[in-house]
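Progress report, Aim 2. The chain analyzed during this reporting quarter is listed below.
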Amino acid sequence: MTKTHHERGAIGALLTGLGLTVAATVLPYVDRATSHLLADHIRAGYPAYTQARVDSAVSSYLVLLSVIGVLGVIAWLWMIWAVKADKRWARPAATVMFVLGACVGLTGLLTRDTSGETGMPPALGWAGMAPCLAALLAVTCLWRRPRASGRG
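Predicted structure tokens for the chain:
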């Protein structure tokens, strides 16, 4: 069976979202090795922190962001499979995944910690939101395409 334009667009958007999620997951590690944006953000919010406490906070963020990233990659792969297999539940599942991802991304972008600043530097927070744009496009493509076979 040939894929419709909307289905190809949805799969392309899902693959783009997967790539953006991998990039957003790797970015804090690149930051730690190069610009130290996260460490500087923590240090600015908590000037009394020792370097050891800043490093510990950065490590905690890296673990948290890695777990979120791995869960995101699993979700993207699952949705890519569901769309390619033309599963009946792919549209609502993609919509739920989009809402969950947007909530996680907005939480990282907007949540303020005890210092009064956002927990994450804005650049890293916005990087976490980038996959949501691909998810929005994928969901739009999925809901615009006609249901073909209605398998499982």
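The two ends are 17 Å apart (CA to CA). Residues 51-84 form the longest helix (34 residues). These observations will guide the mutagenesis work planned for the next reporting period.
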